[in-house]
Every structure is written in C-alpha cells, then in structure tokens.
Design goal:
Helix 4 runs parallel beside helix 5 and helix 8 packs across helix 11. The longest helix is centred in the C-terminal third of the chain and has 21 residues. The strands form two sheets. The protein has an eleven-stranded mixed β-sheet with strand order 1-3-2-6-8-7-12-13-11-9-10, sandwiched between helices. Strands 4-5 form a two-stranded antiparallel sheet. It has a single domain, classed as Amidase signature (AS) enzymes (Alpha-Beta Complex), CATH 3.90.1300.10. It is an alpha/beta fold.
Amino acid sequence: MEIHKLSGWEISQKIKNKELTLDKVISFFKERIKKFNPQLNSLVSLFEDVEFPSSEFSSELWGVPILIKDNICIKNREITCASKILKGFISCYDATVIEKIKKAGLVILGTTNMDEFAFGSSCENSCYGPTLNPYNKQYVSGGSSGGSAAGVSAGLSPLALGSDTGGSIRQPASFCGVVGFKPTYGRISRYGLVAFGSSLDVIGPLARDIRDIAYLLEIISGWDAKDSTSSLQEKKSFSSALEDNIKGLKIALPKEYFVAGLNKEVEESIKEAIKVFESKGAYISEINLPHTEYAVPCYYILSSSEASSNLSRFDGIRYGARKKAKDLIEVYKKTRREGFGKEAKRRIMLGTFSLSSGYYEAYYLKALKVRSLIKKEFQEVFKYYQAIITPTSPTPPFQIGERVEDPLSMYLSDVYTIPSNLSGIPSVSLPCGFTKEGLPVGLQIMANHFSEDILIKVSFSYQSVTNWHKIYPKDYD
C-alpha cells in the first residue's frame, strides 16, 4: 500500500477500519521525511516524540499526520519564523488552531521552512536555506509557506498548515502542484500566529485533495475569544459542499489578469480549466477589475507598515536571541542587525518610512483608500457572480536565485493573489496543468466573504474530472 498517495480522510478511514494502525502511519511518514527532507529542506524540525491523540475517532481526520508552518505556536516546541533572531525561542502555549487539531486527533509531525517572518515569495529568505521544488530541485517552491507546500507535494505528509498575507499559501501551492486554501479574514483564529500584517494575515490548509481541505477547515475555523479579529459568523459544514454540481453557477473572468506578463503556458492551462467549468454548465463572463494594477504597491505599503510595527517586539530583550553589548541601545541595534535577514530589514525600513511624520498621508493613508476601492470593486462583482477565476501566479516556478537580487520582480509574483488579502475574501489555488518542462500550474478561484462552501463545491467539481492533483513528482512517486 502506497500510504503517501492516500488522502488524509482515506488514511483516517483505514485506521478506523483497522486496515492500518496509527503507529504504522506515523512511522511511515517519519521515515519518509528522514529519507527525502535532506534533499528538499521542507521541514526545519521533525518531532521524534509526536503527541498521539488522547480520544478515539473524534473527527474525519483522526490519526492523520500534519505539518505546521514555523510561525504558528506549538506548546513546548521551538518556533523561529525561519529567523536567527528567534533561534532558541520555545513557545509556552498552543495557537488556537493547534488546540483544535490536537482535539480532533491529528498528529503533528514537525514544523516547516518558510521565508523569514513570511517575507517572501520563494522560500529563499530563510535562515535554514531555501526549500526546493519537488518537481525540479533547480526551482523554488514558492513562498512564504514553501516548506508546507513542498512537504505535501513530496508526500511527506498529507496535510499542512500555512499562513497567507499576500498569497503565501496559494502561490507555493501553485508552484508545488497542491491545493492551497486562504479562508475569509476572521474565519480562523490568528491567536498564536506570529504577526506579519495583522489586517491581512490568515491561517489556512494545504493538501492534495479538496475533501481534506473541507474537513480541516471544519476543524480549525470558528470564533475565538482570544482573537479580537475572529468573526462571529456562523460556522458552516464545509464538507456538505463536496458535491459535483455547478450547473448555472456564474463565474467571472477579469480581463486585467490576462494581460502582458502572463506566461503563455499558464494562460493555456487556465483556458483549459475554464472549458471544464463550461462543460459542467457554469456560465463564464469577462469582467473588469480596473484597480488590480494598484494592488501590489498598495499591499507593500500596508503590509510593510504593519510588519514594521509588529516586529518592533523582537529586540533582544523579550524573545529569542540577544547579543551582548555595552548598553541597552546597543543591545537593540546589534540584536536586530545580526538577527534579521536582508528582506526583513527591507520591509521594516519601508514600513517605518511609510508611517513616518510627513509621509503618512502620502503613502499609508493613500494605500488605505486604494484598499477600500479594491474591496468595493469585488463587492460589485459578487452582486452578479458567485466566483472569480484567475491564474494563481503569472508564471510557473522560477529558478533558485533568479529573483533574489530583484525585489520588484519577486514582489510581482503575488500580483494575482494580493487582491484577495486586501479585500479579505476567501480564495483557493488548484493544480490545473504542467508546463513543457514539467512544472506545475495553479488555478485561483475567489468567492465572496464567508463563501468558502462555494470554493469547495467548485474545486470538488473540478477535481472530480481531472487528475492534476494526483500527479506526484517522479522522484517522490
């Protein structure tokens, strides 16, 4: 039995039916990680002393292994956000999502690599080194949740959690040929997630099968008193949306996402996916989202400003590493200078500048106004359409090192994913094809606030007649 090719819910069923034992499943994935992780650098820590579930069969994913991005707190485990400045920091509590997955009986195998503090689109900005793409190790895995995406892609675990501030779940999912789901802002508690951009950050799942995504969303979503931004919106049964029926669904296709800069092979894969939806009775219409071109500069002003504020707490006094110096000010300077990487410093400086006296109105305030326009634009579309289809990324995965010295080119990797974060709407990336070089291509679907059920229905309908999500990298097949 090829356990790594089973989806999470299938593994759970086989454990419950006594076709597999929990010990065998966990041992299998541990050995697989030990064998393949040195090649990929997907995990930054493997838990030899995994915590087994205390109660039996408490969810549809009971007994299923899961990987956790290194910016989500797990009690008594080191959490570093892939930064030297947090080396040695041990969390004293579980994030709310961790509490929930433990209660549901999932088994945490370890933590995954990421861009430092989630600053990046390639998983190259890490103190642990880059995570490589399982389909071709000369290419990036995407970021910032590259370790989570690569781990699921290579079959090191059927499930993973990531975080998404401007595309950090969806873009690596696209690059690694897996499903990445960004929920509505507020749907899932952020308590225990190390903050990057507090008005943008969300936690979300990665898997190969949309059914796993639906079950995991049911487990981790819901209001949390410990997170003032979590929503009181009624929790839905996401698994009830797992039906192959999208006849009559109105899907919008924004012209601004199909312009110069979009890779031809990516465009062809998206057009083939559109034909699938049309064959199932969905109506596809072109629309305009004219403020799309302003999304990237708007996002980098807002997210960097919030990051500048959030990262001020990492000063060598309260958390992680501390550099010895002659006085307090020198401790701050030396710790931050040696602890933060190049991209983290760039974001902090950009954000501090945007918030500084004399520039606040010209940058930060103006970006807030543009964000409001982008939100309003999406709300107008959703008056007439249930979903929006776009590419996840304008290009397939790019080579390791190709964009490291070109920040603007790197930032443009997220041009299609950022609007979803700015507007707070849910979105998903699905595998929809491969380039001639064998690199994955992702399809993005967006829906209105708290309409995750529509995304699950559309995704399930697509995966029921396609096999892109079942094509494993040949070295990990």
